[in-house]
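Sequence and structure are kept together here, with a separate record for every protein. An example record follows, reproduced without changes.
>
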Amino acid sequence: MNIIYAILAMIGFGSYPVFAKKLISKYGSFMTSFYSHLIAWIIVLAILLPGFSYTKPTMATTFLIIMQGFIGASAVAVMFLAYKSTKVSLAVSLINIYPLIVLLASVLIFNEKFTSLKILAALIIIFGSLILVNDFLNLPKIKKNSIYIISLAVLLLSLNVILMKPIVVELGGRASSIFVETVTVLGLLMLFNIFDKVKLPKRKDFASFLIPGAFLGLAVSTIFFSINKIGVGLTGAIVGASPLVSSIFGRIYLKEKLNKKEIIGILTIVLGLVLISI
C-alpha cells in the first residue's frame, strides 16, 4: 500500500496541533513550535539513524536542503503571524489551498504522471479539506495586511513541499528527513529568537512537549518516504488533509463537537483516500 507513508505523515501533522493547543496557551506559539520540532528532530534521528549510510549531497542539493529547511521554518513563523492577524478559522481556510499548488507543480515542473482516478481523488481530498476548515463567508471582512501574510504563508508552504522532491530524488527518504529537519530546527531557533525569545520550559512541563513532538517526528520521518513512493503531488494532497485528523483528535482529546459541515468534509476526505488507494 504505497500511500501508507503519506497517511502516517497526515496523522502526524494533524495530531501535532491538537496536542500543542494547551501548550500554546501557556508558552505561546513560537516556543511551543520550537520545542516540538526539537523533540521531533531527536525522534527522527532515533528512528532513521540506525542503518543510515551517509551520502554526501552535491553542492546544489546542499543548497536546496538549507533553503528548504529555512523556508519550512519561515512558513511556521508566518503561519503563526497569519493566525494572529485574523480569525484562525479563516486563515486556516485560505492557507489550506497550498496542496492544490503542490499538485499543479508536480505535474508542470516535475512531470509526475497520475491516472485520471488519482488526480480526481487528490482533488476530492483537497476539496474535502477546504469544506472541513471552511470559513469563506467571512472573507469580505479580512484585512488587506492579513491577505498579504496569508498569501506569503501559502507560498512558503507550497515551496516547502515542492523543494522536497529534488532532495528526495538524490538522497532518498531517510537522509532527506535527517538533513532537512536538522536545518529546520536551526532555522526555527534563529527566527524565533528574533520574534519571541526561546526560553527553557519548566522541568515539570517539559514532558508535555513530548506528545506533540512525537507526532511531528512521525510526520517528518515519513513524508519524504511518501514523496519517494507516490510523488510530491499526491503526498501534498494527502498530507494537506491533516485537518481530518485534527478534527477527530479534537473531538476525542479536547471534547470539541463536530458540526454538519465538518462531518461532510471528513466523509469527502475519506472518499478521496479510498479512491487514491485503488
Summary: Residues 4-276 form one domain. The chain has a mean pLDDT of 84.
